[in-house]
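Retro notes
What went well: the complex prediction finally ran end to end.
Inputs used:
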Amino acid sequence: MSSSNKLAKAPSKPISQSLRLPRGPVSMADLDPSATPGYPGKGKADAAALTEALGPQVSDLQEMLYASGRSNPESAQRVLVVLQGMDTSGKGGVIRHAMGLVDPQGIDLTAFKAPTEEERKHDYLWRIRNALPGAGKIGIFDRSHYEDVLVVRVESIVPEDVWSKRYDEINAFEAELAAGGTRIVKCMLNVSSDEQKARLAERLEDPTKYWKYNPGDVDARKKWPAYMEAYEALLEKCNTDAAPWYVIPADRKWYRNWAVAELLRETLAGMPLSWPAAEFDVEVEKARVAAS
Amino acid sequence: MSSSNKLAKAPSKPISQSLRLPRGPVSMADLDPSATPGYPGKGKADAAALTEALGPQVSDLQEMLYASGRSNPESAQRVLVVLQGMDTSGKGGVIRHAMGLVDPQGIDLTAFKAPTEEERKHDYLWRIRNALPGAGKIGIFDRSHYEDVLVVRVESIVPEDVWSKRYDEINAFEAELAAGGTRIVKCMLNVSSDEQKARLAERLEDPTKYWKYNPGDVDARKKWPAYMEAYEALLEKCNTDAAPWYVIPADRKWYRNWAVAELLRETLAGMPLSWPAAEFDVEVEKARVAAS
């Protein structure tokens, strides 16, 4: 569409700065789920167009990332987007609308459920390591190893002396990934308790949304304060320079989708990407093609 | 965009009828790679918009397919899109532009390369079975088991008495999948030898495309007649009602992308999809949410 370039406005400062959680103690009560930091448009009306307008640049950068992965699999860069948030916060919506801007060939998507019997036989990071993005790929984790300090902590699935060590283990794991060339973008989709209630009620009003409703969501909802405490702990303890946390206000779906798309665009734009050199003699190959 | 509905024109007859290969002997020489059967627009100028205009319907249907897969994993329907074609025919372009219309969560994409050591220890269909789409998913095969009667036949990687039995084996395998609820859409992207030559030359003129060029492509190109013979055999022998072959003219990229997107839309629209019923008492849950 000819309007795309006009619409591809950049925020006045990098979105990573607007959304980056400051180091130190975190209080969820201080983080506004309905804010729209860095949003360069007018509001809901232009958000879908602004998000779609990011598509061409995201797509071009992703192709360069993919190309470099193909030509040099060992040292290749990768991106890992980690999506966490309470039920209804919109992890699926972000994947559909923001990650949907990317060529499916460039994505390694994993949705982590309750661990299987096989997964439970291993360390909690085993299945995470198995799902890491390949060379030149953008990995997307719909839930992640952070569930091992969220539901696992709230429901006491392992004793405190086990889960309390995991923050340091996770930091060491993520530092290792970052050192190996993976850009880690951790997004906490911050939905309010009131908005969650409205979204759950909406699913029960609409037969085309029944499949998204799970009675267990209400049980988790009843433990909201314990979950917020668990989020505060992980946001404080695992907010490192190698793998920073971004808190995305998620009460406005249109803002949430735009913000994650812009964060992905900015991440890709900040990587030292270049087109791989030819691994063959270009003139020789031109002659071979011409003669074929 | 408000223009989408206006642009979402349907072809005058189902695209599956325009592209379905008739039963019987096949001559590649009779199939025009630059034709545009069933295209409802003016040409290249409106093709990207016509393709994008399919997005909302494809997306809605895919969500219903996905929902039914979530609620009934055992009996769920699935779709399997098989993409075959000579180098440069545009398998990657189709995935980017046509399959890119679909929510990444709904896709199971596999690109088959030369078999690994592990894969070679098993029957040729072993890795194919491992990559079949999950419940409610759209599987995409970038190359497939048809390589086992293409490169394997042309390069005599196994003896003729082995590969010649595979056509029947493949038909039996695909009939089994179809009976189990998988809609199989096999697309042969038909690029001409001249157009392939032009595309290879183009890659050598543009440093941002060097990574797509492989000197081995010229070696395969020199065996063009043998590949066409192998395609004729599989198009004739494996063109079944359970798993029909569609030959997509692929010299015009804009037509190719639109045609596969429309074929996917039509396939989804022809499936008996419905939103799953609630597996809980809706009124009880409304009260639980209200009280939470």
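What we learned: The interface with chain A takes residues 1, 49, 67, 70-71, 92, 95-96, 99-100, 102-105, 107, 109, 111, 140, 142, 197, 200-201, 204, 207-208, 210-213, 215, 218, 221-222, 275-278, 280, 282, 285-286, 288-290, 292 of chain B (CB under 8 Å).
What to try next: split runs per interface for comparison.
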